[in-house]
């Protein structure tokens, strides 16, 4: 029992991390109808920025807490700057173009970000230390034998993810900007015709996606270190958003949890029968099944067709 | 129109409300779509811009609302003025703030948003309180009672007529002085078209909103408009009071399909005589 719960919880935590990255995809998809391939690169760049800034700031200020706060603010500013540059140089010129064009543009942005990020911040492996407690906790020792092992940093990450999701969901559903974002996703030109300034909306949404990437980068980075492979982690979040629905903020989270848990549990309990390795492909197979039978995902908006 | 009457008309209206002067529009740097279009809209009037498919009606409207850039179109010559100020280089956002808003051809509602959310996006440019916003919503619902009953349905699932009403209502939420209405009758049943034009007329008289509307449905448009322009091939070929145009033999024949002496063989139908315009 304890072991199953541990596996289950471990899956939930990994799932939350996927969900954090998936959120970035969902944000940009909701506001432009485009799948943003550059999300992984944004996570990498954000994490690199945070790692380097926190190194400098901690040294300059002599305090880890202050240094990290300053580094976080600097990284947020940096991601906003990235958003502005992307809008100026790329998106502005692609208003009302085919979605495929925009999709290819995000692929291009991926490579530029990957390259520039490492050029500016260096390409070695960095660590992010935001002072998360690392000592594992034992819970429920009285309930069943052996109790349960939990990493407190996972709990913190879970809290952060939950707050982020709640905020974003509220933002999208109930604010003027959120409504404008959804309007832009539905129809660029009509949004423009009622006076919604596309450029500003895109800066906002890429900046928010950048900040989400930053949070994801910090959480991943402080667990696993910051290196190039971080940008490929995003590919594992791809099935998450397919499962949850590309247009649903809560969907990203639930999709992430399902995949995280599914991966871990199936690896542990089914792995031995098929020679292991389920974790690697589980998410993609699940995504494929969804694409076949429910392409809009669990919570995504249905494609509206009038006959 | 000869040179004389043109200058006279210009002298009569010292500062026209909306005036488009000799506008040329080129798409993609090569496709010449508007070849020097000039027209005027007086404050508080409904002006119809008529013509067949591809005559340049939509382009004219988009050149005013500045939605051309998104389609790689450019105003290469001429000027557009609204209340005496040049507006041809303004972004749609600035224009909406100034009171000029376009309702695009084919409705273009935000399909995944509810009707009410659609209406609320129309107020994006306005900084108003919640109370004012609600008052405005109520006003739109007053003109379009049908929208009220469908307020929480996703716009994508409503009927064509409701979507057209939603699009006009959405524009109203921006508190416009002038609405550029592109092809409101498209794909709608005659009864609904009538209903929508009635509301347009109502908005015009009660809310003092001026309209420039592009229409293929010449007969209906001329019934509700004060003044009309007829476009052909990127040029204005005829203009006049709506009543005169409706009575004009040529217009009747070319656009209304009514020739003087009953049905005619297709072979005898006149081809269009384009009027030369030296000063356009």
Automatic annotation (TrEMBL), chain B:
GO MF term (any one): branched-chain amino acid transmembrane transporter activity
InterPro entries xrefs: AAA+_ATPase, ABC_transporter-like_ATP-bd, BCAA_Transport_ATP-bd_LivF, P-loop_NTPase
Residues annotated as domain ABC transporter: 18-258
Keyword hit for Nuclease: no
Top-level taxon in the UniProt lineage: Bacteria
Full protein name: ABC transporter ATP-binding protein
Keyword list, A-Z: Amino-acid transport, ATP-binding, Cell membrane, Membrane, Nucleotide-binding, Transport
Family matches, as Gene3D superfamilies: P-loop containing nucleotide triphosphate hydrolases
TM regions (residue ranges): none
One record GO biological process: L-amino acid transport
Organism: Thauera phenolivorans
Family: Belongs to the ABC transporter superfamily.
CDD domains: ABC_TM1139_LivF_branched
Alphabetical list of SMART domains matching this protein: AAA
């Amino acid at each position: 029992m304890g072991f199953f719960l541990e596996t289950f919880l471990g899956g939930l935590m990994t799932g939350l991390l996927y969900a954090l990255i998936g959120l970035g995809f969902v944000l940009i998809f909701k506001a432009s109808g485009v799948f943003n391939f550059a999300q992984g690169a944004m996570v990498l760049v954000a994490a690199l920025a945070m790692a380097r800034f926190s190194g400098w700031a901690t040294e300059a200020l002599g305090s880890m807490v202050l240094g990290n706060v300053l580094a976080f603010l600097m990284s947020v500013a940096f991601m906003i700057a990235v958003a502005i540059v992307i809008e100026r140089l790329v998106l502005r010129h692609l208003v009302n173009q085919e979605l495929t064009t925009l999709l290819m543009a995000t692929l291009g942005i991926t490579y530029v970000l990957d390259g520039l990020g490492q050029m500016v911040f260096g390409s070695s492996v960095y660590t992010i230390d935001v002072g998360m407690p690392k000592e594992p906790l034992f819970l429920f020792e009285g309930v069943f034998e052996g109790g349960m092992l939990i990493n407190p940093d996972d709990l913190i990450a879970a809290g952060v993810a939950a707050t982020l999701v709640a905020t974003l969901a509220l933002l999208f559903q109930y604010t003027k900007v959120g409504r404008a974002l959804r309007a832009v996703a539905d129809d660029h030109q009509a949004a423009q015709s009622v006076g919604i300034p596309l450029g500003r909306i895109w800066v906002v949404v890429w900046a928010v996606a950048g900040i989400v990437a930053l949070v994801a980068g910090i959480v991943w980075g402080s667990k696993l270190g910051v290196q190039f492979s971080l940008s490929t982690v995003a590919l594992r979040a791809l099935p998450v958003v397919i499962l949850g629905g590309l247009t649903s903020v809560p969907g990203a989270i639930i999709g992430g949890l399902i995949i995280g848990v599914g991966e871990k549990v199936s690896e542990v309990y089914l792995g031995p029968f098929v020679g292991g390795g389920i974790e690697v492909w589980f998410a993609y197979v699940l995504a494929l099944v969804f694409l076949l039978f429910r392409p809009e995902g669990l919570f995504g908006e249905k494609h509206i067709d009038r006959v | 129109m000869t040179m004389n009457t043109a200058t006279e008309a210009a002298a009569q209206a010292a500062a026209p409300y909306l005036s488009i002067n000799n506008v040329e529009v080129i798409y993609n740097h090569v496709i010449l779509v508007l070849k020097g279009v000039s027209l005027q809209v007086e404050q508080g009037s409904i002006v119809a811009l008529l013509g067949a498919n591809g005559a340049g009606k939509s382009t004219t409207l988009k050149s005013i609302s500045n939605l051309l850039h998104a389609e790689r179109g450019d105003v290469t010559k001429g000027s557009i003025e609204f209340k005496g100020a040049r507006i041809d280089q303004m972004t749609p956002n600035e224009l909406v703030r100034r009171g000029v808003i376009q309702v695009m051809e084919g409705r273009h509602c935000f399909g995944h948003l509810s009707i009410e959310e659609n209406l609320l996006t129309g107020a994006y440019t306005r900084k108003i309180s919640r109370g004012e916003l609600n008052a405005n919503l109520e006003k739109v619902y007053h003109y379009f009672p049908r929208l009220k009953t469908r307020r929480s349905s996703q716009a994508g699932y409503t009927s064509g007529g409701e979507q057209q009403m939603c699009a006009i209502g959405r524009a109203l939420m921006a508190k416009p002085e002038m609405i550029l209405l592109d092809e409101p009758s498209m794909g709608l049943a005659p009864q609904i078209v009538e209903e929508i034009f009635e509301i347009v007329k109502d908005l015009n008289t009660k809310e003092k909103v001026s309209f420039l509307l592009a229409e293929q449905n010449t007969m209906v448009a001329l019934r509700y408009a004060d003044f009309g322009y007829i476009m052909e091939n990127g040029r204005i070929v005829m203009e006049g009071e709506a009543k005169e145009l409706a009575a004009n033999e040529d217009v009747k024949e070319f656009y209304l399909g009514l020739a003087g002496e009953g049905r005619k063989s297709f072979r005898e139908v006149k081809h269009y005589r384009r009027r030369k315009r030296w000063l356009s």
